[in-house]
Amino acid sequence: MSTAIAVTIAGSDSGGGAGIQADLKTFSALGVYGASVITALTAQNTLGVTAIHAAPADFVTAEIDAVFSDLDVDAVKIGMLAGPDIIRAVAEGLDRWQQSKVVLDPVMVAASGDQLIADEAVASVRDLLLPRALLVTPNLPEAARLLDEPVAVGPDAMEAQGKRLLALGAKAVLVKGGHASGPESADVLVTPSGSRWLSAPRIDTDNTHGTGCTLSSAIAAGLAKGMDLDAAVDAGKAYLTAAIAAADTLEIGKGRGPVHHFHSLWKS
């Protein structure tokens, strides 16, 4: 049996809780071999981001070609892309290597509130990457920024924004409700055939750094293992919920700590 392989195209988090580091931890925890294309270096920790250094677009292209020319890639997760030139390089790389199982997490703002993407790059994400994605996974602020609309309030508005993102070319949209309030953390999966809700109890913890990266990479891991989209989304949601529930068993940093990617593997 061939080894399931997933690639993350994203930025590095020097604190280890999000970005490339969270993606590779997630792939490994779920039994998938992870490779990476690093689009940016960030100087950050649990307290915030202090500097961002974007990789040159031609170097991102070189990384993509090195990985995809050698590895038999089953799925791709895309995270932080700092500028339009990098976004264009990634879009061209997806076409060149004929990748269809693509999970796009339109990372724009860190959990600390720091901006991770330039305003001019938002249009490039919308125009070049949404149509190439099997699934787009925006949180409420990201969905609003992609649509240039106010942040959705309530389930009807969330679903409506998901449908508008679908109309922009994505094959499916998972609008995440983690930024909402209430006892349940509810996401809505919008596809051409309809919408369905995924709910889990909202967990009382401040250690949620990397949740978006972790969910999108968990879904990509499911796709890499041969799951269909619905099954991969359900499995990804369950994995993230358990990782958040176990987050307080870690003692990492002085601020917003990471989720526990290896909750099922490490002895407490």
Description:
The chain is an alpha/beta fold and 268 residues long. The protein has a single domain (5-249), classed as UDP-N-acetylmuramoyl-L-alanine:D-glutamate ligase (3-Layer(aba) Sandwich), CATH 3.40.1190. Helix content is 38%, strand content 21%. It has 8 helices and 9 strands. The chain has helices spanning 19-29, 57-70, 84-96, 119-129, 140-147, 155-167, 211-224, 229-245, and strands at 5-13, 33-45, 48-54, 75-78, 102-104, 135-136, 173-175, 184-191, 194-201. It has a 6-stranded mixed β-sheet with strand order 3-2-1-4-5-6. A 3-stranded antiparallel β-sheet has the order 7-8-9. α3 (84-96) runs parallel beside α4 and α5 (140-147) packs across α6 (155-167). The chain is globular and about 45 Å long. The protein starts with a strand and ends in a 23-residue tail after the last helix.
**Count of discrete domains:** 1
Q: Could you give the order of strands across the largest sheet?
A: 3-2-1-4-5-6
Percent in strands: 15-25%
CATH topology label: UDP-N-acetylmuramoyl-L-alanine:D-glutamate ligase
Overall mean pLDDT stands at: 93
Q: What is the count of DSSP helices, taking H or I runs of 4+ residues?
A: 8
In terms of per-residue confidence, which ranges show pLDDT below 50 for 5 or more consecutive residues? none
CATH homologous superfamily designation: Ribokinase
The helix/strand order is EHEEHEHEHEHHEEEHH
| CATH architecture field | 3-Layer(aba) Sandwich
